[in-house]
Amino acid sequence: MEPSITDAARGVGMKELQVLLQAELPSSAPPIISGIRSATLQMVATATVAAYVAPGGLGRLLVDGLASLDYAQMLSGAVLVAALALAVDGSWRSSSGWSSPTA
Predict the structure, then answer these.
(1) Helix (H, G, I), strand (E, B) or coil at 77
(2) By three-state DSSP, how is residue 72 classified?
(3) CB-based contact 63:52 (threshold 8 Å)
(4) C-alpha to C-alpha distance for 57 and 12, rounded to whole angstroms
(5) Of 28-32, 39-43, 51-55, which has the strongest mean pLDDT?
(6) How far apart are CA 98 and CA 103, in angstroms?
């Protein structure tokens, strides 16, 4: 965050809590939401690895398809994981509009 935002907020007489809640937090919300979005996508992508140690989940389709050389099953599992990742990303993308600061 740019120091000029904090300086301007203090310059108009805001107290420390007001600076945090009305200047710093709104201007830093987009990078925070972006980090949460990135972490969520990484979680969806790596959740398929859990099928190697525990039964269930979309990763099971990939693991079982690989074990039986059933490429259609592997492809369906990969498509489902990709669709889930796109759906999660789309929901974060649509909800990130409220976090952008307005002039």
Answers:
(1) helix
(2) helix
(3) yes
(4) 54
(5) 39-43
(6) 13
